[in-house]
């Protein structure tokens, strides 16, 4: 008897083996369910998060109506705006240059010369980076409505350029129909393209250019952040910034590719700048309108490298809180920039005009680390989608939504602040240059 119980108990004590095998199966089952849930539900969550904000239903403030919904609607409004320039008599010229590799795409340039003396010329250019043209068009519309009544048509002429990159605007793409970043494409010498080098881009190339179609959104997201951490450890954040901001001229499928020759859009803009410099105006103010870079809640006036004022002096002169000049900590130079080209052209033409060519940059993602990382992700993803497509329609939509939001934010609050900043900056610059009554 003494022994029996032990014999009987032994097998009862051996559930260890049974417990051992059951526990991992259950754990694995739960883990699998969680993974499946994340893989299946995660993309839907990311898709919802990427969607644009609905427009305010009622009582929407007037400034919001400046923002167009489509390239076509924006263009139509721009062309109709001609009729409101009556104070210029019959001297208004609209030129529509077909460009962009498909029917119905144009660079539209509206020009009205001063009726008596060629004193001041104000040039606004928009949509150099396609998708940024929606905000650019809004600001030209604002200028037409709110600034034109304050200008003196006898002394002040205007040139407005709608959609320097119409293909990119229509298709919500930063680059043009040849996948060229137009604001890296302006050089005075035809052989300049081959001379540009960006070693940091070549170091980062495998991270910036992906070889295969984009798949499940969650897996893709996890892989991106994993790769990013690896790249930061290996090369540092400085190399990533250098790779991107300068532009590159060696990888036509890559991001921020500046091209191998002057694109047709570039040639048209160069022609417009040349005509402006040759038209005999004493003072020229040129504002090129962009979105993306900089703090989300404050538009930046980004000076060309010829600017001699310090940040403080320029801020004081324009009565505007955020002006970046070559002395600023965050200032960076890009190759092939159109405002830089304008100054080089002035020099070559030996024009005596007092030229001020600058960029208004409406920040959208913010300048903190999280904003920079999301901006980088959206840039790489959109380029990868363009080059290789996607195996998942949901992932594709997430990428497209994020990209559009990055350059044309749907948030009403953002739009109203952009409108307020443009009013303040434009008034400041024009008053400083003596083009608006003080
Ligand atoms: Zn831009």
Automatic annotation (TrEMBL):
Gene3D superfamilies found in the cross-reference section:
Zn peptidases (3.40.630.10)
Q: Which domain of life is it from?
A: Bacteria
Map out region (Disordered) in residue numbers: 1-20
Membrane-spanning parts: none
Q: Which InterPro entries match?
A: DUF2817 (IPR021259)
Read off the SUPFAM superfamilies from this record.
Answer: Zn-dependent exopeptidases
The name under which this protein is listed is M14 family metallopeptidase
Question: Which organism's genome codes for this protein?
Answer: Paenibacillus aestuarii
């Amino acid at each position: 008897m003494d022994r029996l119980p032990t014999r009987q108990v032994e097998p009862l004590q051996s559930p260890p083996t049974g417990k051992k095998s059951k526990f991992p199966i259950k754990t694995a089952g739960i883990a699998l369910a969680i993974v499946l849930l994340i893989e299946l539900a995660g993309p839907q969550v990311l898709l919802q998060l990427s969607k644009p904000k609905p427009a305010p239903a009622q009582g929407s403030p007037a400034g919001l109506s400046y923002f167009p919904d489509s390239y076509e609607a924006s263009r139509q409004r721009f062309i109709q705006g001609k009729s409101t320039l009556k104070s210029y008599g019959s001297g208004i010229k609209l030129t529509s240059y077909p460009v962009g590799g498909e029917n119905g795409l144009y660079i539209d340039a509206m020009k009205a010369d001063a009726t008596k003396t060629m004193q001041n010329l104000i040039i606004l250019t928009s949509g150099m980076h396609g998708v940024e043209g929606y905000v650019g068009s809004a600001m030209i519309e604002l200028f037409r409505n709110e600034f034109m009544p304050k200008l003196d048509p006898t002394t002040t002429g205007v040139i407005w350029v709608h959609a320097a990159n119409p293909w990119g605007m229509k298709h919500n793409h930063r680059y043009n129909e040849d996948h060229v970043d137009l604001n890296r494409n302006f050089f005075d010498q035809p052989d300049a393209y081959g001379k540009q080098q960006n070693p940091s881009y070549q170091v980062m190339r495998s991270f910036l250019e992906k070889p295969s179609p984009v798949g499940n959104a969650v897996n893709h997201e996890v892989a991106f952040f994993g790769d990013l951490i690896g790249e930061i450890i290996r090369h540092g954040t400085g190399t990533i910034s250098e790779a991107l901001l300068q532009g590159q001229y060696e990888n036509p499928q890559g991001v921020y590719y500046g091209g191998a020759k002057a694109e047709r859009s570039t040639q048209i803009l160069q022609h417009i700048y040349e005509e402006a410099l040759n038209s005999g105006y004493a003072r020229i103010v040129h504002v090129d309108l962009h979105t993306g870079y900089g703090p989300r809640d404050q538009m930046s006036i980004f000076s060309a490298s010829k600017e001699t004022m310090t940040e403080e002096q320029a801020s004081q002169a324009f009565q505007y809180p955020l002006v970046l000049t070559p002395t600023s900590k965050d200032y960076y130079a890009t190759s092939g920039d159109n405002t830089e080209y304008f100054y080089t052209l002035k020099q070559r033409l030996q024009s005596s005009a007092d030229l001020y060519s600058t960029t208004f940059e409406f920040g959208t993602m913010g300048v903190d680390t999280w904003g920079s990382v999301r901006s980088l992700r959206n840039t790489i993803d959109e380029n990868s989608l363009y080059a290789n497509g996607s195996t998942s329609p949901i992932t594709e939509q997430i990428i497209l939504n994020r990209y559009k939001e990055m350059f044309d934010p749907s948030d009403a609050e953002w739009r109203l602040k952009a409108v307020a900043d443009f009013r303040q900056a434009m008034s400041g610059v024009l008053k400083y240059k003596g083009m608006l009554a003080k």
